């Protein structure tokens, strides 16, 4: 499913701490602005627009199983980047909001609509860009159910292969985690069970 959200992309605010009586608590702000002139946080409006755009694109039952979510957020061009006589190409947006906060806005908005739990979203391409001259600002979203097996995914295979080549020889494996202990190693086999190397055991004896 593909759909466009006409909005100003906004990231979820950071969780904050407060004191409530004698107890500490945390909360996610829903408003911004000075006291007496508070207004809804931009992320609240952004989430509402995402949900509305999803509904307008055609409601469906929430997906079960793993999901891939790709999104591209296009932000307004600054006035000093607007020209009349030369092309205005997209370029990378490196300002606020952070990518992870914007991702949270999108995933939170679509919970119980496109999927039951954000934990189902385990793949996805994301990009923050400044809009080109002919672009509409907003968020462009694609949602795809994926198969359980991802062994043959070229992106996964490529990332694992590239990172493995540049890592130390003692890399973690699903069957056992090898950890450095001084100049030797110990191996953990899951559930917290670790065995020291023979040399370390003999020293202990």
Written account of the structure:
By secondary structure, the chain is of the alpha+beta class. It has helices at residues 42-56, 99-110, 154-165, 198-204, and strands at 2-5, 16-20, 23-27, 31-32, 39-40, 67-75, 91-92, 121-123, 126-130, 138-145, 177-181, 184-188, 194-195. Strands 1, 6, 7, 8, 9 and 10 form a 6-stranded mixed beta sheet that branches. Strands 11-12-13 form a 3-stranded antiparallel beta sheet, with no helix packed on it. The chain is globular.
Outline:
The chain is of the alpha+beta class and 205 residues long. The chain has 4 helices and 13 strands. The chain starts with a strand and ends with a helix.
Q: How far apart lie the N and C ends?
A: 63 Å
Sheet having the most strands? 6 strands, mixed
| Chain-averaged pLDDT | 79
Order of helices and strands: EEEEEHEEHEEEHEEEH
Provide the structure class.
alpha+beta
Helix-strand layout with pairing:
Layout: E1 2-5, E2 16-20, E3 23-27, E4 31-32, E5 39-40, H1 42-56, E6 67-75, E7 91-92, H2 99-110, E8 121-123, E9 126-130, E10 138-145, H3 154-165, E11 177-181, E12 184-188, E13 194-195, H4 198-204
Parallel strand pairs: 6-8, 6-9
Antiparallel strand pairs: 1-10, 2-3, 4-5, 6-10, 7-9, 11-12, 12-13
What descriptors fit this protein?
205 residues; alpha+beta; six-stranded mixed β-sheet; three-stranded antiparallel β-sheet; 13 strands; globular; disordered C terminus
